[in-house]
Amino acid sequence: YEWYETPNVHHCTVADFEDLCRSLGFRIRERLVLHHGKPVRLLPNLLGSLAVYRCTTQ
Predict the structure, then answer these.
(1) Cα(22)–Cα(34) distance, integer angstroms
(2) Domain coverage including residue 45
(3) Is 21 exposed, middle or buried (0-12, 13-18, 19+ CB in 10 A)?
(4) Torsions phi, psi of 51, nearest 5?
(5) In what side-by-side order are the strands of the sheet with 26-35?
(6) Is the pLDDT of residue 15 over 70?
(7) pTM for the whole thing?
(8) How far apart are CA 50 and CA 58, in angstroms?
(9) Residue 1 covered by a domain
(10) Average of pLDDT values for 4-23?
(11) What is the domain count for the chain?
(12) Residue 1: pLDDT band by 50, 70, 90 thresholds?
C-alpha cells in the first residue's frame, strides 16, 4: 500500500508529501518546516510538526 491507501491510520510525513508531489508531477519550489513556530533544519521529517510548501506544476 501507498501511505494514502492504507486501511490503517497513517499521518502524512514530510517525506510522504514530497513523494506524493513527485508522483503527481509537482515541483517543490520552497519548503518551511516548523515546530512550535520555529524553523526546523535538522531532521525535519522527524522533528517538524508543521510544513508549508510552495509548489508548481512541472
Answers:
(1) 22
(2) 14-57
(3) middle
(4) -130, 135
(5) 38-39, 26-35, 50-57
(6) yes
(7) 0.75
(8) 25
(9) no
(10) 85
(11) 1
(12) low
User: Is 3 contained in some domain?
Assistant: no
The bridge status of strand 38-39 relative to strand 50-57 is: unpaired
- The three cell numbers locating residue 49: 510538526
The pLDDT of 30-45, averaged and rounded, is: 96
Residue 24 domain-assigned (yes or no): yes
Where does the pLDDT of residue 3 fall: very low under 50, low under 70, confident under 90, or very high at 90 and above?
low
Round to the nearest angstrom and report the end-to-end CA distance of the chain.
26
Q: Is residue 5 part of a domain?
A: no
Residue 48 to residue 17: CA distance in whole angstroms: 13
Question: Which has more confidence, 27 or 9?
Answer: 27
The cell numbers describing 16, all together, are: 510522504
C-alpha distance from residue 36 to each of 40, 47, 56 (Å): 10, 10, 27
